[in-house]
Amino acid sequence: MKTKYLIETSAIRAAMQDTTPAHAAHFAQLTADGELWVSVYIRKEFIRRWVCDAARMAMTIAQCSTVDEALTILEQDFSIRSVKGTIATLASYLRERGQIFNTRAAAEEVASLALRKLKMFDKVFPSRVNNKCRCQAGTIGPNVDYNALLTELHVLYERFMATVRDCGVNSFLHFSRPRGSLLKLLNDAKVLALSVGQRLSQLQESGAWITCRECARIGDVIIALEQPSSWCLVHIDAAFNDLCQCLGTKHVALASVKAVAKMSEHAPRPTDGTPS
Question: How confident is the model at residue 105 (pLDDT cuts 50, 70, 90)?
Fold first, then answer.
């Protein structure tokens, strides 16, 4: 029987080959003996992290008088250098596509990129585990009309960003009377040392009602709790080392892009047998 791999959010790009060739090959090697699965919740995390960011970029570009102005505004939203570098890369991409001087064309190009990513996600991951937490946001999909890309992406963004106040995640977690796997996490010192563990404990102690806003803060916990016991979680995020150890579930840590590059640098080089 093939191993069933649950692909956590941090490993999604490698599974979709939206990474370096070496990193994609590393992922393929680790999961070659099994099937790739996700959950509705992981799909929600993918939309929040990748699709909504692109949607916000497209809408900002569409509302500005020039693309350069829009990119400058977007750059100010971030303080991390690598993200600023991403904005610079986007500028180069639009310039190469000949759309740096046309806000409408540039906005539609970014919108198209966002929707293509979501379409690719659904193609790569047609199989999903049962939606135990009953996440509603992860089931949202666009009605794509390629004559109105910006409008459709804006509708998707607004639907997704609307706070769900009656989510089934509250009954899934049972914060008022924690038991089973959740109780294990709340009593594990290593888990409570994690930032996600601290947030989980704070929400439980305050008796918080979980909406999308609170849920986004404990996403790793939701993913870990939904993992079927016989499956293997694939992740890059180091928090899952402790979460899975506490829950007694299988997991495999995918190396980062930088780590894989270093492996390649130190790998033995093939020779033709002649002395150097």
Answer: confident
